[in-house]
What we know:
Layout: E1 3-5, E2 8-11, E3 15-16, E4 38-42, E5 47-51, E6 55-60, E7 65-70, E8 75-77, E9 80-84, E10 88-93, E11 97-98, E12 105-114, E13 117-127, E14 136-142, E15 145-146, E16 154-157, E17 161-165, E18 170-178, E19 181-189, H1 197-208, E20 214-216, E21 223-226, E22 232-237
Parallel strand pairs: 3-20
Antiparallel strand pairs: 1-19, 2-19, 4-5, 4-13, 5-6, 6-7, 8-9, 9-10, 10-12, 11-12, 12-13, 14-15, 14-16, 14-22, 16-17, 17-18, 18-19, 20-21, 21-22
Amino acid sequence: MPKLLAALPVLASLWALTGCVPAAEAPQGPGTPPAAAYFALGTEPGWTLEITPGMLNYDGDYGDTKIVVANPGARPSFNGERYVTPQLTVDITHAACSDGMSDRRYRDTVTLTAEGKTVKGCGGGVLPPAELAGTSWTFVSIGGVAVARDRPTSLAFEDAKLSGSAGCNRFSGGYDSKGDTLTAGPLMATEMACPGAGMTQENAFFALMQGPVRLSLPADGTLILTGAEGRTAVLKRVI
């Protein structure tokens, strides 16, 4: 017999991006490099770019072209930054970008000219999905503890329904998203008793979801739910 869980008000006050420091946070002005590494990539042909405080490291044409030059510092440009060297020119525009090979979206659009050849791609922090509907996740850790490998977990969002398992019982219910606020529930869950870690991590997840939860999406593509007292659940996207 399913049991009814209380409605879970989930506040998505922001999608906090961590990991790679976005170009918007890089110091401005000639001779002033970013405070930490910035990454960009593109396809057809495949290329990557790393900007560190000391250098621009370009790997293009699927690895056939390699250029490493001293970082000249960022110049302010329209809605972004520009790096200019004799071999490389990099224009970073703060506008959402898709890599063209997946549904992953990035904060910046990047245009790069390497020895006269221009390519386009994406860079900066990974943006959250355009919408939750159609996304599926598995749990990595709950309450700072790695989930048991022998207990399958999931969290999936459909048009107006979410469902999943935190390691023991299956739960499901409706959800409504308005602006930055996601309200889930009421949720129905089975009443199966699971020995060991499965029940423990499930209880930790339900406790986490009893109050407002902040959502963040680091550059590695994980989803982090942070609740009261800093309790977290970390999930990874199912491709």
